[in-house]
């Protein structure tokens, strides 16, 4: 008997195709299982984070309520008195530790010959030292030179002028206010390169030479 394949289609190896499809199915199932495991793990982690957030919020609310109860239990008048006393104590400490010698030496090094320093009054507030000075000068150029020299030392900033007037002798008198930063450690006095010989100390002595009328402020 003759056995002949008369079909127009070739014969396929179905067993190999089934094996490939089975391998692909196994891979798909494995990936699906891994993704499901990751989703479950992430969902559990998210739940733990949410629980932690809620626990922290409850703790914050509880601490806030305790702080409010403590504030309500305090005597506000006594608290204000203690705060004022502490501020006064800090100012007294700043006054006792303030170096007048360093300030006077620096002013003397920067004071032009024709500018007289009439008075010096420091103020201590909120950890900052403001120096108020009454000065009078012969010419506006001399006063401007004093202004520039102070700023160049690096120890005086935010310099402001006010209460400018002319005395009966024709001298220009004004108030200068500046924020003063004392040197951290004693050292040489900062002298600007163009500084002239100083003409007075912190309070102008009676021997100061009288000045003529200035030509005006810039």
Provide an overview of this structure.
This protein has 218 residues and is α+β, with helices and mostly antiparallel strands. Helices cover 49% and strands 19% of the residues. It is built from 4 helices and 4 strands. It has helices at 14-73, 76-97, 100-110, 140-152, and strands at 115-125, 128-137, 156-166, 172-180. Residues 193-218 have low confidence and may be disordered.
Please name the CATH architecture of the largest domain: 2-Layer Sandwich
CATH topology of the largest domain, by name, is: Alpha-Beta Plaits
Main-sheet strand order equals: 1-2-4-3
Number of strands: 4
Main sheet, how many strands, which sense, barrel?
Answer: 4 strands, antiparallel
List the total number of helices: 4
What gap, in angstroms, lies between the N and C termini?
130 Å
Taken in chain order, the helices and strands follow as HHHEEHEE
Low-confidence stretches: 193-218
Radius of gyration: 43 Å
Please provide a brief summary of the model.
49% of the residues lie in helices and 19% in strands.
List keywords for this structure.
alpha+beta, 49% helix, 218 residues, 19% strand, 4 strands
